[in-house]
Write a structure and sequence with these properties.
202 residues; mainly alpha; Four Helix Bundle (Hemerythrin (Met), subunit A); two-stranded antiparallel sheet; 71% helix; 2% strand; elongated
């Protein structure tokens, strides 16, 4: 029996794809911290909007088309990532590789569209409170999408090389959980940034 700080660590192999793996708890901790940051941004946005005379300052709500397409692509990538995870759960390495690769391509398209959208902003982060919070939220999520694309690209390469198995898939599990978080985090941001001004703009 291996006892670490009073905890029986006998079955806590780094290869387990569930709560028995320390890395599983590590990603859970990261997601918890990042969720608190998401909540803080949302509360900050609502606070600034509630105390502004005009929100947004231009008096015009931002366009919905491209952000809505991005939301659809991110949610679709969650489905393909889920399919990938189910594939390796059944020992289907090809399904894993195809699912992760498809997810990476979808998220990469999101980055392209988001880049064009950000470049089209007619305000900077230092123009007003609205600009500051919009650029902060947009930049925060953009960086996270970039990080999940890079991480999942490594997972895809390993998947095509046949590295992962039903017994050795903790890397896939951690990557998938992070992917879900980043994609779902866009939902409250999307509602605040693009529907918020339409619902409570003044």
């Amino acid at each position: 029996m291996r006892v670490i700080n009073g905890i029986d660590a006998t079955n806590m192999s780094r290869l387990h794809p569930d709560q028995r793996a320390p890395l599983w708890w590590g990603i859970l901790g990261l997601i918890t911290i990042e969720s608190a940051v998401v909540l803080a941004f949302c509360v900050s946005y609502l606070y600034l909007a509630a105390h502004a005379e005009v929100w947004p300052p231009s008096g015009t709500a931002p366009p919905l088309l491209w952000p809505s397409i991005n939301l659809g692509l991110l949610l679709l990538s969650c489905m393909t990532m889920y399919s990938a995870g189910q594939g390796i759960n059944h020992g289907n390495k090809r399904r894993l590789a195809i699912g992760v690769t498809t997810s990476v391509l979808l998220a990469s398209l999101v980055l392209v569209l988001r880049t064009k959208e950000l470049m089209a902003y007619d305000f900077s982060w230092q123009d007003h409170a609205y600009g500051s919070i919009v650029w902060t939220i947009s930049g925060f999520h953009y960086v996270h999408v970039t990080s999940m694309v890079l991480g999942s690209t490594a997972i895809a390469i390993l998947a095509w090389r046949g590295y992962f198995t039903r017994e050795r898939q903790i890397g896939v599990v951690v990557d998938t959980n992070y992917w879900y978080f980043v994609c779902i985090a866009w939902v409250p941001f999307y509602l605040l940034l693009y529907w918020g001004p339409r619902l409570y703009g003044n």
